[in-house]
Specification:
This protein has 295 residues and is of the alpha/beta class. It has two domains: 5-105 and 283-290, ATPase, nucleotide binding domain (Nucleotidyltransferase, domain 5), CATH 3.30.420.40; 113-278, Hexokinase, domain 1 (3-Layer(aba) Sandwich), CATH 3.40.367. The protein is 33% helix and 25% strand. Strand 11 (132-138) and strand 12 form a beta hairpin. The longest helix has 26 residues, at 207-232.
Length: 295
């Protein structure tokens, strides 16, 4: 028996694969593949395992950028489908577990070290909280996962928040600068790779236009984040992941985001949360490596 687990992070654009042992990702085994070169996840997996683990693996944990229903799943932004039973047979009986990619990040976010994070809004000195966190992914698509740490047991909820209607305050701000703003009807229509590009097209292509766009989009993101803070109360932190989130929150517009995000609420309660950007591209793989499989 190899004692190996294959950890997989499958997004709409790329698939990352790595081997894990004893709950720890083996960093020197991580490889990334462009999905356009393959017809299915199994094709990517087989190519990787030919050299990385010719003796096979005992377990497979896959973080998928799309809805997971029990033992089946599909990618939101690519016609790839996953069946745990079929993959198990393909791997000679290996135990297979499917989870949403944001849930995989939720498994690891409480344990990420400072060098894996960029803190945009620092925790308050008197921050308490009851173990609630929120992972927000903005890349090819949009989704999030609420994370609850209950006595050391992490519970990461599956959510398809990208298909929720755009909040009114975000839509009103969008209309102030963007013609045909009504085409952005859901959260993912606006906060995703294609939404980011569509809004960018409404600003001049020069440096000044870029800076204006970054500030505008950061303001939109701050409004969304405030809605998410009220909805999920992530007192232990809001963790952003994905190329779009990283491009905005590590840009000069991060200060504007922080200022807008920290405006007081019209409630008789102190509601606040630190905000971090996940910089570690292997974070979801680490979550798959650390995941406790049932049975």
């Amino acid at each position: 028996m190899t004692g190996l687990r294959l950890a997989a992070d499958v997004g709409g654009t790329n698939t990352r694969l790595g081997l894990a042992r004893g709950g720890v990702l083996l960093a020197d085994t991580v490889q990334s593949f462009r999905n356009d070169a393959f017809g299915s996840f199994a094709e990517v997996m087989d190519l990787y395992l030919q050299d990385a683990a010719p003796g096979g693996v005992e377990e497979l944990a896959i973080a998928i950028a799309g809805p997971v229903t029990g033992a089946t799943a599909r990618l939101t932004n690519r016609d790839w489908h996953f069946d745990a039973a079929a993959l198990s047979r393909h791997l000679n009986g290996a135990q297979v577990h499917l989870l949403n990619d944001l849930a995989a990040l939720g498994q690891v976010c409480p344990h990420l070290q400072a060098d894996c994070l960029d803190t945009v809004v620092a925790p308050a000195s008197d921050a308490g909280g009851d173990g609630q966190r929120l992972v927000v992914g903005i890349g090819t698509g949009f989704n999030l996962s609420p994370v609850l740490d209950a006595g050391g047991q992490l519970q990461c909820l599956n959510v398809e928040y990208g298909h929720v209607s755009l909040p009114l305050d975000v839509a009103e701000r969008l209309r102030s600068h963007v013609t045909k703003a009504g085409t952005f009807t859901t959260v993912e229509h606006l906060f995703s790779g294609r939404g980011h590009a569509a809004v960018r097209s409404h600003f001049p292509a020069d440096d000044a236009g870029t800076q204006e766009f970054l500030g505008f989009y950061a303001h939109l993101l701050a409004l969304l984040a405030r809605n998410l803070m009220l909805a999920f109360l992530p007192a232990q932190g809001m963790y952003f992941a994905g190329a779009v989130a990283r491009s905005i929150l590590t840009s000069p517009a991060r200060g504007l985001f922080a200022e807008r995000f920290q405006q007081p609420f019209a409630l008789d309660a102190r509601i606040a949360a630190p905000v971090h950007v996940i910089l570690d591209d292997a974070a979801a793989l680490k979550g798959c490596a650390a995941l406790r499989l049932p049975g």
